[in-house]
Amino acid sequence: MPITHHVDAVSQLRGEPSRRPRIDRGLAGGLRAWLNDELFEIFGEDHSTKIVRSPWSLTHRGAPHSTLGIARGALVGALFTQRMLGSTIEHPMDDALCVLEADPGAAPLTHEIHQLDPDRFALLAAEVSAHDAVLAQQLRPVPSSWLPRFGVQACVALHGGQLTLRSTTDAMLGPAPHDVASVALLDVTTAAHDQHIHQELTLRALIETLRAGTQPFAVASLSSATGALALLEVREHDLVEAVHAIVKATKEALHG
Amino acid sequence: MAEIMTMSSDPKLIAQVLCEAPTTTAHLDPGLRRALARRIAAHAPARELGPIRLDSYVITTVLRGGALHRDGPFHWSPRAARRIIGGGALRHLLEGRAKDPLSGVQCEITALVNQAAGRRDQRSGSLGQWLHEAPPSLRVAVAAEAMTYATELLTCVDLTSLCASIDASAADPQWAVPGAPWISVRGRRDLEVAFNGTHGHRAILALRGGPMGPDARYDLGIVALTAALSRPDAPLPARIVGIWGATGRAMVVPVDGETMKTAARQVLQAVEALGVPTRAKLAA
Q1: A85–B140 C-beta distance less than 8 A
Q2: What residue spans define the domains of chain B?
Q3: CB–CB of B109/B129 below 8 Å?
């Protein structure tokens, strides 16, 4: 999987249209049935345990993010949307904070940001500006004909709801597919990519395949810390790899 | 009762289901409408407690015994504005006045802001006034939310195979209860499709967030009832299709007399269960 620097992420994501896979209408159903069979074996007589996992939680076991990290992620996420729509940003922290302040769901987070002491607030603002400078370099406005949508949620229940896979995609591009895969997913992370990034992208691709019934042609993650774009052109073996990862993680969660 | 079906939310399938010819031309039973109005008025929470708007979320939550969130005064947010602006954008698109959801959204926001700036809309809490006063970055966030909503609507149905015309009217159907007009029943739906060559025959589409819950069929039934109550002159909607986009699942509820009775019972039970003083108790 290529990881590139100093690129126009949106153009990279679009790639070469002729390389996009044809839609296999039976693929999503087959993957779901396979996963359900595996989960039936794993859960056995246990009908009460419920597990919820995201691509991040399936690949990382680290401690939860700090408040500052969560705040930085939310603020940079807001700026990512602004950049994708070609907005002019002069004061990154102010612009992002005003978006967050208008979201009732983000009220506890904005409260925490306003409670930061001046030094930590200044540090956060400087970090947000630095991340925005990377976004400005790596993102060109997305053409509106690509039908961008932002903050798209996916929630896939397997084995009668005992395993739920959740994800939020920062930007989804492309119309619903007919014969050829036409949807691409782009996420932004404020962390540097680590050794799990490939697996995380395969998991995102699988969740979207199970949700929509058709696979995306590409899934990518842009690191606003380094400017690196990790791009996965989705193929069937990537989805198979993701199934194995979910089975393994579920076994570990249940049986240690 | 006709069979309720859950299926994948494949846009082609959704278009097929929406286009199926209606199996009945029945209208809402006027007796049911009158009885519902009479019984709601009899059990209505007192007018002094202010207007009460019952939608399927409120009704199913009350019937489950759940608590309703009281968030305090309403404030506009990108999330709160998405259906109004996104629905307007879709109308611009369907009428050929915009070429894509973003340009439709921009048309809609510009119109709202101009209306407020031209002092034709001086209500301090109006969406136009809020947008007029909003900094540019907040307007972009509003545009992103509305565009996402409009695109979801546009892509959830395969328009190329839809043999019906789409009505993306701005307002949700609403029925103010005769005899207790401070109580209204509202159906949150996102599109109606009118069958070509028929008079008033239609199907309803409702987008929903999160996973499909056990109340899904009742939610859709209440929306269909509200649509029928608000247009008693038109035939019952043929069916209502709910799409839970996050899960990629859809539910089709055929609308018939039994669906209407079940939904009416639930509205009534919710009114009775709201647990606030009735007019009779206040008078005593």
Answers
A1: yes
A2: 5-65+163-274, 78-154
A3: no
Between B47 and A149, the higher pLDDT residue = A149
Residue A84's Cβ-count burial label (10 Å; 0-12, 13-18, 19+) is buried
Question: Is residue B70 predicted with pLDDT exceeding 90?
Answer: no
ipTM over 0.90: yes
Q: Which of A24, A27, A50, A81 to mutate to test the interface with B (most CBs of B within 10 A)?
A: A81
Contact A155 B154 (CB under 8 A): no
Co-location of A75 and A169 in the same domain: no
Q: Which domain holds residue A129?
A: 67-138
A&B contacts, CB < 8 Å: 98
- Taking an 8 Å cut-off on Cβ atoms, the answer to whether B209 and A153 are in contact is yes
Q: Is residue A131 located within the same domain as residue A151?
A: no
Give the tens place of pLDDT for each residue, B172-212.
999 999 988 989 999 999 999 887 666 778 899 999 999 99
Average pLDDT in chain A: 93
Query: Residue for token digits 């966030």?
Result: B141
Residues A158 and A202 grouped into a single domain: yes
Among left, alpha and beta (phi > 0; psi -120 to 50; other), residue B251 is beta
Using a 10 angstrom Cβ sphere, with 0-12 exposed, 13-18 middle and 19 or more buried, the burial of residue A254 is middle
Q: Which of A93, A109, A138 is the last residue of a domain?
A: A138
Q: How far is CA B5 from CA A225, B187, B216, B242, in A?
A: 47, 21, 11, 11
From chain B, which residues contact A within 8 Å (Cβ)?
8-11, 71, 75-79, 99-103, 134-138, 140-141, 143-145, 147-148, 151-152, 154-155, 158, 209-211, 245-248
A104, A138, A172: which is the final residue of a domain?
A: A138
pLDDT at position A2 is 59
The answer to whether residues A111 and A28 belong to one domain is: no
A52 and A175 share one domain: yes
With contacts defined as CB-CB under 8 Å, which chain B residues touch A148? 102, 147-148, 151
